[in-house]
Queue: 4 jobs
Job 1
Amino acid sequence: MLQNIHLTLPLEEPVVIFTLVLLIILVVPIILGRFRIPGIVGLILAGVIFGPNGFHILSRDASIELFGTVGLLYIMFQAGLEIDMIDFKKYKVRSLVFGTFTFIIPMILGTLTFFYLHGYDIKPAILLASMFAPHTLLAYPIISRLGLSKNEAVTLTIGGTLITDTAVLFVLAVIINSTQGQTNAGFWVWMIAQMALFVGVVLWIFPKISKWMFKQLESEKGAQYIFVLTVVFAAAFLSEVAGMEAIIGAFLAGLALNPLIPHASALMNRVEFVGNNIFIPFFLISTGMLVDLKVLFTDTNAMLIAGTIVVLAPAAKYAAAWITQKIFKFSALQRNLIFGLSSAHAAATLAVVLAGYDIGILGESALNGAVILILVSSMISSFSTEKVGRKLAILESRRKPDISQKPDRILVPIGNPKTIENLIDLSVMLKNPTHKEPIYPLAVVIDNEHAEEEIYKKNKMLQEAIKHASATDNDVHLVSKIDINVSSGILRAIKELMITEVVLGWNAKITTRDRIFGTVLDNLLENTEQMILVCKIIQPLNTTGRLIVIVPTNAELERGFMRWIRSVKLLSTQVGAPIVFRGRRRTLNKLKSVVNKTKPTVEAEYSPYSNLNEFATMDSELQSDDMVIVISARKRTVSYNSNMDYIPRVLSRNYKNNSFIVIYPEQYPVYQNVPLKPNSYSGTVDNGEEI
């Protein structure tokens, strides 16, 4: 067997090649990390050393190019997927301004330099300038790892990337077609029509297909990931058909799937894990393989071009970041972060220079100069982003947290194995992402002669909770209790584990014996002050259309007001669904003020109601993808009134086709025999109003 393996250079055995690449991906970042050198730089340098222009241990064959292309598309896809769409819409004008500056400044500076100083004709001069006008989000994995992906400067840079790359590729298309004599009116009409059709298909049709597919594949986790990859490459292919680069399609695919892949979901964890550990490192290594350092010593023209580009490119990008900072009053750290993210050149730069080389406008010197630019700019981008990102992450972590931001300790009592995944998914989405508290699935067994056997069965069932939560990269601690009844076991677990929230499933069935939900839930409501969420989830959470939130009068006076608002906003952010708040005008005014001033940013509407009858008939206004969230209250509390006791019956009878959650916030009990003093709270108490 061994004598059939012939190790020649460059390596040709697929198993050996793949083993070596994986070793590079594993070892190089660890070694360079000891010297505080970003792993991205190390992987590019590894490509230089092991590639055809180094020791030629690896050749840049079809397999390396394939994985490299996938990695490049993955970077753009993840950038679109992780962007905060609310902030993206909010800061679209700022993205447009930065995108314009980061395109125009390099184009003007580069064209004038190569036209007047290097003596190039106007078309080659424009193409050479186009090499350092676009940028690739090569350092985005660093930003993601540091938790800065939602920073305004990052959102602005991502939007600017789309604008400048599209503009450069449009310029490239014009030059190529003008060289071939195809710049008549028909050419312009056809190009614009193709682009418009492509954008419409990816941003309008793809999300509808994806929502339907996620519903069909709810239990097929592996199939969901394969479907996501299919969408990315389909969008990339359509982008090329429309006359643009594949990276534009991958980015738009990320925007299209953004609302459908929650950031705390198992699917997102799979997307990031595979991309950051396999595909993106392959791209970095394949990029390094393009670099030929010998050119700097043998080709004087290439040296001049490379020197000019290496100086002009970062200067132009820094100028764009500096002007943007002054206009929008960003901090110096944010300015440097914008520069770091936008200073790397790879994808569009290669597209420009290769296209110019193929049609004879640019020579080999320009090609070699572009490759040097890729290496140098990648190092500048990685070092700058890593250094600034760490400072900004430390600064943000020192900000005084809101009282509602205390660590979540979520208890999930499990009774029905069919609801485990939905309840765990919901709990993960409701967790404060800045804290690493585990989720506590709970099994309660009645204390009798069969208790030992039952506890074994329950623990076996809870293993599914561990398996599912592990896919989301969240810790899970199983809890088992033997008690005289279920509610007593849950109450004991709440006290012992210092639980802040309890997430419960409900089958939406009410018997004549039930007072509100049933004996267990009613006992919990009477004997706890923690926030309790009673849920019925009947469709995948990531396909939720809107969150319809019913808010009672005086809700703003409760202790848990800020906490349930944060939970609803987190859920909205994770599932990508806008919120529609329904309540009395006074309560909505207070609610609007709090929602606008606190993070995360969400898309919200505020619709007044008059009484409970509207809630009972509101089902006719809802779509099947809408989720109803009712903010209720325990008896003898400030926001309670007797009409709330009918809410479960209304939900059970009128909302059979919608998922819903009834939230009981943290509350101080207020006994009926103690008169309420208006001055005790920051508003007027009115227990007589309907919710």
Job 2
Amino acid sequence: MSMQVVLDTGFGSGERFAAARAQGGRLHYIAIAAALPPAAAVDDAQLRAAWPLNVPGFHRVILNDEVTLDLLVGAVDAVLPQIRARVNVFYLSPDVAPACARTLAKLAVQGATLHARAADDALVWALTAAGFVCRIAGDADAHASANDDAHAAAPDIAAVYLGRKPQPAAQSVPVRRAVVIGAGLAGSSAAQRLCARGWQVTLIERHAQPAQEASGNLAGIFMPLLSKDDNLPTRLSRAAYLFALREWRRMGGVGTAFLGADCGVLQLARDDRHAKVQQDALAQWNYPPQYARWADAQEASALIGAPTPHGGWLFAQGGWARPRSLCEAMLAACGARLQRVFHTEALDLLRVDDDWQVRGADGALIAQAPTVVLASGAGADQIAQATELPLAKLRGQVTHLPVDAAAAPPLLPLVVCREAYVTPPSDGIVCAGATYDNDDDPALRASSQQENLARLAKIIPGDAVAALAHTAPLAGRVGFRVAAPDRLPLAGALPDYPNAGRLEFLSDVPRHPGLHCLLGYASRGLIWAPLMAELLVSQLENTPLPLEAALVEALDPGRFLLKQRRRAQ
């Protein structure tokens, strides 16, 4: 079924969105707003429950498998160039400048309609020059030219895009069959989003159960990043964190659909200087308190039940989740469209005609499909096409502290972190960690446990916590995170290193047809996985992307090959 894509630069109360939704069919509605009203001002109950916080950036709201709303917060002239979509219908507010006309034309499909109320006739001239055939609403001549004297007053414009410039060739509808390799957070999220879009998915996992590698920890932390300059990692974490929270609510909620708690996260300052940095970042962006606020030393001390002299950031909607439980919930949501092939290791990919054949160690065929998504974390280097990706494995040891031990750990009501983290108890265990080691030792070791406990003693000072270094039994888990040099994930088409020549732009990077990856999630897989899966599926389906173009480029797996060749040229 074809999708109607609407771009509205004057979302207002959402009446046009409601009207478009009432027409039925698949709808992708992109709305730009300088600021979002509070959720209480939204009439529609379903939309109100999913309404984003008023923070900058792109907010993808998936209401159901048929209706997606993108709320883009920012100035129109700044947001428009960051949109990657093919638009059927435009609604323009009076504040759209004539200079935006060419950007609108780049987004328009042939025959796209446009409706606007302009401050004067300058927009009519600009739209006409960009390839739109304009008329004044109510004018007898349906194709009046921009030279018509009737344009002298503030016009209501109706236009059709009939540009003569060559447009990108319409991409064919994909064959909705895919193989996903890896059943951790990355692979489970990809399978869930693909199945929701109607794909048949074969999920290959070398273990007997999902989430046995880096996603197998008892507790993962979800929280955003903040910075005064709102850099790329900050913007990505904000979009991903809030998208994950919305998607988890759609599933039934943290602690209901899967194990965890949105109990809050307190990120303590290290010292006075760091406290000033944290406060400056909050003051710069004036975030809603539900997103991030300052907890002074008195409040922070009361929260953790121990003295802390500096205070810190409080993320009220943050918390912890058990990744394995989340993976199982996502895979259960796939239903009959998902085929699990577990306890089977994929080691070889071979392109035959229009399919990828996935084979095991003995050369036997495991599965085949036109599309393959490599989401196997530390195991990705076993696949020949991915061996040149500059990914590093980082050993992480988490310490498990039983609450019924003679020397009990701190029992906290929320997650607390400062160069390490400690969780509230779950199933009788408090988790503290985790180390960042540059070795491949899979065994628990006392030195890593002592490192975790030393950091814990700095977060929660006092004799009882300090004593854990001598009394706590060696217990925990070792996992291997995978990180890129820039600490951003890789989401998109896999670059073809052997066939790369001279490169100037990302668009010049050759790709393996139908081969994609979701890798490099490091320690942020919980919040990155849902949005990265949504980004990849949007790319596969040729539908509007859920992130601004600058972020999409920053996540492109071809970015490292491009940098390598630019340095060499």
Job 3
Amino acid sequence: MSQAQINATLAARNILTRLHDVMAARTNAQAKLNQVVDIIGDSLNSEVCSIYLLREGVLELFATRGLNQEAVHVTKLALGQGLTGTIAKNVETLNLAEATAHPDFQYRPETGEEKFHSFAGVPIVRMERAVGVLCIQHVEPRRYLEVEIEAMQTVAMVLSELIANAGLVDAQGASDGGAELTHSQREIGFPLVAGLASGKAVFHQPRITIEHVVAEDVEAERQRVYSAFIKMREQIDKMASQAEFGTGGEHDEVLETYKMFAYDEGWSRRINEAIDSGLTAEAAIERVQQRTRMRMRQIDDPLLADRMHDLEDLSNRLLRIVSGQIGTAAQMGLRQDTILIARNLGPAELLEYDRRRLKGVILEEGSLTAHVTIVARAMGIPVMGRMRNILHQVRQDDHLLIDTNENSVLIRPAPQVIEAFEAKFVRSREKQAAYAALRDVEPRTKDGTRIDVLINAGLRDDIAHLAVTGADGVGLFRTEFQFLVSATLPQRERQLRLYRDVLDAAGEKPVVFRTVDIGGDKSLPYLREDGPGEENPAMGWRAVRVALERDGLLKVQARALIEAAAGKTLNVMFPMIAEPWEFDAARQVFEDQLNFLKGRKKILPDRIRYGAMLEVPALAETLDLLGPKIDFLSIGTNDLTQFLLAADRAHPKLAQRYDWISPAILRFIRRVVKSVEPYDIDLTVCGEMGGRQLEALALLAVGIRRLSITPAAVGPIKAMVRSIDLKAASSRMEEMLAHPPANMRETLQDWAMDQGVELG
């Protein structure tokens, strides 16, 4: 520990000792706050120390040392207003050498703060919500040391207890508050794992209120934390050994990464440093956890955010153990069909629940690559994420309905809504049964055209869907998923095992492996680039661009794929090819590795078929150059469409612009179909577009004969294919593209209904 850290720790301990005496004194709350700002100012050698508290929805200056006393109870700021309001709204820390340079700075003349330059502020947090702000200021412009900020955050925890006990903040600041929740409502979220679910709301964990913040005996608190760490690690090891998903899978790697966090020495060291400053074990864990939450809010990288979620999960577990409040909803047992609600979950916590009773999960946060999502998908549990205020909108035992098809959660639905949902559930099961009956039926149109229907995959377990759906093969295996769930770069042996398992599980059916598509919005912390972040990550340094620059990464993957396909056909596809030379360069990496392994007398694939992803529109202009070199071409409709329309597919205001059934998109795809006709090329459409019945109809009508889609869409697409006269559909599409109607989607849908096409 550096001298600065030692000094800050001693200062924090001195502050806590003096605050303990203040809190025990028989004086009113205002007098205590007046003493508090003097104590903090003295201990941190601060010229200004101020406390703002949330009252009636605004931040009010309650006590200050260094600013004009006339401003106390006069200066008020709305949430988000000024530096103080920004800290409270975002629950974040600010550390500024020059306060006036910050875009949110607002000058309040009554305070007399114009002579002060440097500023630092931390939120005073109660029940995960900012109920106030603690600020310090100096005349001299300077950034405060990290240890000084940590001392302020420690003090803010004590202040939280003091002001809550004194009843100084809004009542809702320390609880869910708000009006009585009785009315029905519909909330929109982001589907993470598809499905329908009905059940009673159960909160993953009750809130733990820390009653004692200041430690009486530091060594005793340290021993409590040590014991809690031992118990927590035993729990994690036991759960990981008992998890049952079948044989193998990326979720196994997820749990290994999760265990790595449980044994992380840096995390335990930070908690011990918080105890050194004078906090109890519970307060120290919460102190580090608050810091983790603040960091999470500042992280744009979804993978790093997922890692922080794992750490938050472990913090919750450790806090429950050390406080003796270890009963989560899982430990207490589920008594009925349940929809679980949490801000976020770690994979181990999800594994604790009775899978017979757990029908769905709703998360305030969550992402498609989060560890809990991977495990939930393996368990077959629908998950709705990014429901920002769900914890404050739902009561325990409220009836909830999850419908990922509608991206919605229905809260306290009316009886008629429940009845309609149950009917939808029944119809869904009946449809699934009807689609399952098509497993061994060929997807052939009414006029006899055979359509190849393949699946997209990214997990070892996804290959089981080939047998369940009767799909013709895997048209897209996303190899980057193994990289996204791993804490470190997957070594060749791990990649080799995955690819070999996938090929073995697929049997005689083909598998197209897409080389790793990372970078942009799928960045990896262990391959992080220096420099500023990308403004347009989808169009940035990603996919084959990264692979060709970091050719060691592509070489390792090439060797693993070639060795895994020994004695078989290897289908390999390169993503985001914009010009033919990129394909040539990527293929050469594989050819070099093939020659290397040949020299080592390794068993080689019988054949390697090379392909490219057409996601960048520019590639369509050089298909005459690329065509003779490739065995297959896959149109990636997700990226291609947003590039063609200049419409970010994730932007809510552009959702209506991101329509696949548009003349521009369909004409473009038809042109690609015609461009590759002179070559012996398999042309496939990969992506969400091919998995929707109306969109798939449009694709077939412009000449597409191979679709690679999500496994859940195979049955519906087969049913649609068997219901159409392809010649009639193609003729109608030619008319529509020659003279586009005002609404292509509605026109095509009306035609399909008139023709009796199966559209679900």
Job 4
Amino acid sequence: MKPPQKRRISLARVKLQSNTAFRMNVLFFTIFLLFSILILRLGFLQIVKGEDYARAIARTEEVPVNTSVPRGRIFDSEGRIQVGNTPVNAITYTAMQTTKREEMMIVARELARLIEKDDNKVTLRDKQDFYIQLNTESATKKVTDKEKEAIAAQDIPEKEKQQALDALIREKITDKELASLSAEDLEVLAIYREMTSGYALTPQMIKNEGVTDEEFARVSERLTDPKLKGVNTVTDWKRVKSSDLTILGSTTTPETGIPATKLDYYLARDYSRNDRVGTSFLEQQYEAVLQGQKSVVKNVTDGQGSVIETLPVDEGKAGKDLVLSIDSELQSELEKIVENKLLQLKAGPSSKLVKDAYLVMMDPQTGEVLSMVGKRLGEDENGNQAVYDYAFGTFTASHEMGSTVKGATLLTGYSEGAVELNEVQIDEPLKFASTPQKNSVFNTQLFNRIPISDLMAIERSSNVYMFKIALKIAGAEYQYNRGLYIAPESFATMRNSFAQFGLGVKTGIDLPNEATGYMGGTSPGPKLLDLAIGQFDTYTPLQLAQYISTIANDGYRMEPHVVKEIREASRDGEHLGPIETIIEPKTLNRINNTQEEIEQVQTGMRNVYIGSSGSARAQFSDAPYSAAGKTGTAEVYFYEKDHEMNGEYAINIAHVGYAPYENPEIAYAVVIPYVTTDPNNVPKANNEIARAAADKYFELKNKEAQAASNVIKEPYSDSVVVEGE
């Protein structure tokens, strides 16, 4: 029986209501899920990613601006200015992101009416582009339709097609047409090229040399003129050195800007293309310290992207100052000693090859470099003999150092069990097959046998004693006129031991481009014996100074450094700023020897100065202070390609020492390469420089002590070296 019609309608209505309620629940649940996801997403963006997005906004709105903050200054150990900044008037231009080239040209023409600008930097390409810009229609017509079609038919990107077309237009600009550019046009061009040489929102230096007071005033009073939009008058800085000491380094100028080879490196660190950067030595090594912090501004733009307001976010800071361990008075006095001796040597006999002389003095207990002297003979612009600073040669030029390294050889012998304390060896000329006789200077007669102890071997500079140490390390026995085989491992043993003193490895000096010297290989013949007396591998004067410092400092090798403090910029211009960082002494290693063994070598070096057979007795026996050291002579061959004396036999001389003997304050190394070509008449200039340098140190030290202060002092030298000159 079928249900009544009324009942069927009621059931259908209930079913419909049930379906509607289910659908509404699904809809509300979906909405709830969507809102939950939205809330979670908003929370994630705001809480988790909020700082990242804020930084991203800051990167687009907050722009570092070069406000010519002064670069950090460099002072000597006594607070004397070595490198500073001189303020100069300057005129800049800053383009906005929406600035058009036509607007720049208007500004350039107006600015040309107010200032004088040299056009000596304007290139042919600049003139061609400028002519095309002034005569666009006629210049473009120089290219025929056929030529345009040929370029368009090339299978290259559209950008390259346009470049090819532009290049063709330039080629068709004649010299006569370029000559039609007036002097006024070229002045406008000179200004315009500076305006377009950088990025938007980055001030470009239009003129910072020779800006007269009148020019500065004329531009300043019209800064609100719409025709000079983007132009500003500022105080710029020129880097000025009060010393010609090369290790102070150099910087670029705003005109040269960042070197192309390091452009990406500096741009990634928020530099501008026309920023000054250090290009050598201390200026380069401490670039991050010396470079000031630019001001940061926020640009507020309208709907069209035009900047309507610039708000300061962070004020700029001047760069930090460096205080050196070098005393400029001591440096200057030691330079005079070396320079005078070098000129004296050059005026003497057999001196055609001598041209350099070096002296390094450091504190063996702290590693502070007290003086770095390098002098090189050359010619001035008139062809006359001149002496130039070559201080960087103390750590970039290497030479055979001769017997100065015998202290390292003896200590290596002790540590390798090749010799014992106070052991006596027989000094006798050695003859190996197919090689010249090898002997000590004081014992040249074959089969002449002289008993000699380790102390006397240092004092008299016995080559043979060192030869026999090397033979023992190599496990080889000497037999008259027989061949000699040395395993490569023996060279490694000697060199690894020498490296403990700083010989043949980087010293760690806080200057770039330090050399390690030349390693002479692993010849199977008697070259190991040459290595033992400093006539195979080469070392720098700084390595030699670190080596003698290690012996003076009871075996502890200290890292040398020329910067002892980093300070905040001066607050009043009269006193050094607060100390930010003190460069603490850094011990690199201790040599593998006992204290007794080190003291034995120290005694031998003391005898070099005061012993009856000491090789430096004549220069140091009457010194008013106690000192110790070692002299060195190396037989070498001059090598300089295309030089008329290439391959000539010559002599290097060197000297290492320290004082006072009981508690060393200074360690010093002197090197004069190719001092003579006459082995029978070798000058003692190395010993004489060493004595004069030590005397000068103690003389200056014993001056009436002044109370310590942070007062900035005038330079010791009258030298003035201006950036870019």
